[in-house]
Amino acid sequence: MKITMIGAGYVGLVSGACFSDFGHVVTCVDKDPAKITALENGKMPIFEPGLEALVAKNVAAGRLSFTTELASAVAGADAIFIAVGTPSRRGDGHADLTYVYAATREIAASISGPVVIVTKSTVPVGTGDRVEDIIRELCPDIRIEVVSNPEFLREGAAIGDFKRPDRIVVGTEDEWAQGVMRDIYRPLFLNEAPVVFTSRRTSELIKYAANAFLATKITFINEIADLCEAVGANVQDVSRGIGLDNRIGSKFLHAGPGYGGSCFPKDTLALLKTAEDFNTPMRIVEAVTQVNDSRKRAMGRKIIQALGDDHRGKTVALLGLTFKPNTDDMRDAPSLAIIQSLKDAGIQIRAFDPEGMEIAGPLMEGVTFATDAYDAAQGADAVALVTEWDVFRALDLPRLAAGMNAPVMVDLRNIYSAQEAGRAGFTYTSVGRGTLP
Ligand code: NAD
């Protein structure tokens, strides 16, 4: 199959590279010339484990190429995937579909033969209808079908997720388009990945329902963590105790500083906007977004509290800035809100993140960046663990404590135990691990 991928970001680049690895011939198009130049020189514009090698292998095999020229890239394609961003629209939380519709119009101006157009971007219900209208209006004589095929990969584990998905959702009722999608994903049938064919609108909604459900699960366990702290219970044991029940499942039950990232915050808001537009309030999701927003600030307060009453002018070493490990993605990372509340309280911040500092730098005025965890902790009054990168999981705690002004640790990911941190001399606070008064 010949595939064109429009948008070479976290989703487009990983999907394009994986499709080419299946044996398809893929051209990734991005309007950002810096991204394309980097890719042509074998440099990845994002950090994603395994991506560089996968891209290099398929470029060398002649199956994967990059361009800024959409017109030439779509010529003769069997399928054109739209994988551009759909951020929150400033001010109201609706998904901003500007990039999707701009890409659609560019596609319409360039196609000449039958082609299946696939929205891989996360788009609100009804977007596929609008994409179809635009193309049919501009190209009334060309056979096209518009399919919804939402992506469920997780940053940091994106290649594995793409190649071994729990399911592939394909929203189209057209037989020809179903056949094209089956051919594209056929290599995955060996992995027994179930393909769920649905209507286009249903498929669009599945993506939002999935993300809202996962965001709810995280928020639920975070509130249970607060209760654990109040009653002297342990949230990790609660998670295990409920997660072993197959009806509940153990994933997404890790208490922490609240969800962030490029998807959950914007997708929950966009789902609420859709619900509002269709006069169908979703009160659970509404509460989830509110609880999660206030949680990030509460985590800032937790750190401030650990510093004591005279916290102004003190220094916190912040370990981990990205919204989760193994990515450089800083979009809506909890660290942003935490840093803001620390700065508002007159606290100095020394931060370290293994991959996120380049992108984080411009977003964090006044923050000093360190070369590693020990450098960040040097002279600090507290260390706060915000993202559970592997390099923070087995720190030499006595060494960390020795360099600090005061050995105080706020572990927002429950990486360490109170005993372990205590042995190294730390005054230790974590999340949802209450002790009896
Ligand atoms: P991204 O911002 O990393 O990448 C989008 C890319 O599209 C950018 O490089 C941009 O330059 C390019 N682009 C925009 N308009 C273009 C055009 N007209 N022609 C060519 N290129 C264009 O975004 P992302 O994180 O890859 O997300 C893409 C979509 O996938 C979003 O809808 C998102 O919600 C969804 N999604 C993301 C993830 C994730 O983990 N990041 C997971 C599942 C779904």
Automatic annotation (TrEMBL):
PROSITE patterns: PROKAR_LIPOPROTEIN. The active site is at 263 (nucleophile). The keyword Repressor does not apply. NAD(+) binds at residues 30, 35, 86, 122, 155, 266, 331. Pathway: Nucleotide-sugar biosynthesis; UDP-alpha-D-glucuronate biosynthesis; UDP-alpha-D-glucuronate from UDP-alpha-D-glucose: step 1/1. It catalyses: UDP-alpha-D-glucose + 2 NAD(+) + H2O = UDP-alpha-D-glucuronate + 2 NADH + 3 H(+). Coiled coil: none annotated. InterPro entries: 6-PGluconate_DH-like_C_sf, NAD(P)-bd_dom_sf, UDP-Glc/GDP-Man, UDP-Glc/GDP-Man_DH_C, UDP-Glc/GDP-Man_DH_C_sf, UDP-Glc/GDP-Man_DH_dimer, UDP-Glc/GDP-Man_DH_N, UDPglc_DH_bac. The lineage of its organism: Bacteria, Pseudomonadati, Pseudomonadota, Alphaproteobacteria, Sphingomonadales. GO terms for molecular function: NAD binding; UDP-glucose 6-dehydrogenase activity. NCBIfam families: NDP-sugDHase. This is UDP-glucose 6-dehydrogenase. Keywords: NAD, Oxidoreductase. Belongs to the UDP-glucose/GDP-mannose dehydrogenase family. SUPFAM superfamilies: 6-phosphogluconate dehydrogenase C-terminal domain-like, NAD(P)-binding Rossmann-fold domains, UDP-glucose/GDP-mannose dehydrogenase C-terminal domain. Its EC number is 1.1.1.22.
